[in-house]
Design brief:
The chain is 36% helix and 19% strand. With 144 residues, the chain is an alpha+beta fold.
Length: 144
């Protein structure tokens, strides 16, 4: 194989996490991709500075001073799991899954279901505020 041939091929590892998430959403090709894509847009609108990552076997993760939530798709549900969901106010009662845990909470969205967009954005803002409040600050240097 010529050197020029190897330079033309770009392995997937050179793609950004955002590009890979877009591909993952597109590959779902049904209501799950549409739903996950819409929730991603809501997250990005709520926090234009959100960081997108792929972790744990290709799971989309949205972070700001720590993980806000993950987005997973299963056969019958799109699941958004909030890393510190148990500590977040949820007056609209969006959390409907993983309610027994002490830390995480999740929103399961089934085909044809809609999520209250304003309440979801408020949940994103609350998660960011909690992450920022609990972010580990660098220790101050001791004076000599």
């Amino acid at each position: 194989m010529k050197k020029a041939d190897t330079q033309q091929e770009q392995p997937a590892s050179n793609q950004s996490a955002s590009e890979l998430i877009s591909e993952k959403i597109a590959s779902l090709g049904d209501w799950r991709g549409e739903t996950l894509g819409k929730m991603r847009q809501l997250i990005q609108k709520a926090d234009p500075d959100v960081v997108e990552e792929l972790k744990w076997m290709g799971t989309p993760v949205w972070s700001h001073d720590g993980i806000i939530c993950t987005g997973e798709s299963y056969k019958s549900v799109v699941k958004l799991t909030f890393a510190k969901g148990a500590a977040l106010p949820d007056p609209a009662r969006l959390f409907n899954s993983s309610l027994d845990g002490n830390v995480r909470r999740a929103i399961d969205i089934h085909a044809g279901e809609a999520v209250d967009e304003a309440a979801f954005k408020a949940l994103i803002h609350a998660a960011i505020a909690l992450n920022s409040a609990t972010k580990i600050k660098p220790a101050k240097k001791a004076r000599a």
